[in-house]
Amino acid sequence: MSDNRYIGVFDSGIGGLTVVKSIVECMPGENIIYFGDTAHVPYGTRSKRQITEYVLADVRFLRTFDIKAVVIACNTADSVAKEKVREVNPDLPVFGVVDPASRLAAVSTKNGRIGVIATNATVKTGAYERAIAKYNEDATVFMEACPLLVPLVENGRFRPGDPVIEIVLKEYLEPLVEKNIDTLVLGCTHYPLLQEAITHLYPSLNVISSSDAAAAKMLGTLIQNGTCNENTEAAQSERKYFVSDDAEGVDNLARVFMGDELGGTFRQVDVE
Amino acid sequence: MSDNRYIGVFDSGIGGLTVVKSIVECMPGENIIYFGDTAHVPYGTRSKRQITEYVLADVRFLRTFDIKAVVIACNTADSVAKEKVREVNPDLPVFGVVDPASRLAAVSTKNGRIGVIATNATVKTGAYERAIAKYNEDATVFMEACPLLVPLVENGRFRPGDPVIEIVLKEYLEPLVEKNIDTLVLGCTHYPLLQEAITHLYPSLNVISSSDAAAAKMLGTLIQNGTCNENTEAAQSERKYFVSDDAEGVDNLARVFMGDELGGTFRQVDVE
Predict the structure, then answer these.
(1) Which of B47, B164, B246 lies at the smallest CB-CB distance from A45?
(2) pLDDT tens across A115-125, in order?
(3) Which of B45, B49, B253 to mutate to test the interface with A (most CBs of A within 10 A)?
(4) How far is the C-alpha of A130 from the C-alpha of B78, rounded, in Å?
(5) What is the pTM of this model?
(6) What structural domains and CATH numbers belong to chain B?
(7) How far apart are CA A127 and CA A140, in angstroms?
């Protein structure tokens, strides 16, 4: 039996598209609704109460479509509001990005030393330390806030060999490498675009993308629940993209994240 | 007669502090209220209607103090909403940043070729082309959007010799230099911090800071109207700083802009 309902994915902006990309890679036939709450980006600087309100509104919007699961594709929103989303939507499978990446890092580290790079806001929540400890209480976690990586990625500066991204990455990563980490979690949905540049600089690191980990976790659950879409052709899947602020220029930025796999265009929608 | 009332200065964030710094440099004894609407930063991606609403609320907040003038220390807000602010506040001298810098560039260029660097949002408004044409209809204006400069400045990467800022500045400025400009307007309140790095790379350019130009324009008007503060000691002046979102961390960022001249700390305030 095929479950053709949509998978809902949302983020404060368009970084969450890396989760869509990961979902498309492992489940190309699934129908997807994406919502970027660009009227309120970035969530990281808002209060917890305010973030929770925005996140619940995001999910309400996604539920105006017939969705079978939702991914909170934003590390800040996930850390702050996932439990509330589950409480308000007890019938809906809710996935985050922090927990799947933390589990993968916790079980795959050889020396128990894990680095996590993230935005200031995510670092402050302490969510990765808590989640990793849940799966491996002996692991030592080193957090590094990397405020320049999001603007650099959004301006297309993420490719191996770009001198700017290489200088900035080295400054952020060198302190972690000096701590002898063997595993690095990309704790922001923008960062999977940097995976190649990071591996180029530090080829021996075990690099874990929170977007890939979230998609893999969802695939496992859909299989377990028998709610996969039997279609496996991307060409026959449906993708709908929305933002809450002006959609002008968003398609171009979105293509930085997904290239030709985008398969749709963004529309503006008012969400309350 | 001394006019001890405050000068009000506001911006969507804290970039407008470069205007405060310029005011302090030429009028150290003036009392100043600064408001950064950080709950709604950045204005650049919002609609004109939304920006105008925010700007009018910003001015209403500043007017809860006894102010003798207001500076719209944000290029986007100035371009979009200055006329409306004047209409709603006919009794208040209202200064922007675009007009004073444009006038200065228009009258000081030798070859009539002027470059302007700004954010995407300010470039789109076309405000600099219009303002420069008003003062010098023969001038040719070349605009360059520089989306990476604000995050680089806010992360402290603005000093001459920093390889990251030098690479990025060269990429943005080379096309303008190739157009044979002799004058460069820093059309964003964050950019005065880059003046030294730019002069280091292009020593022959006539570099005009919109923040300095706005402060000079205001000084002229205060003198003309006889509304200067007779006090000329910074130590005896009063500075009040407010933001509309969480004030945590703002003082540190503010010190990037003003160093020890800040002379105050930020408080959070709700503005409707």
Answers:
(1) B246
(2) 999 998 899 99
(3) B45
(4) 45
(5) 0.90
(6) 6-96+212-268 (3.40.50.1860), 98-211 (3.40.50.1860)
(7) 14
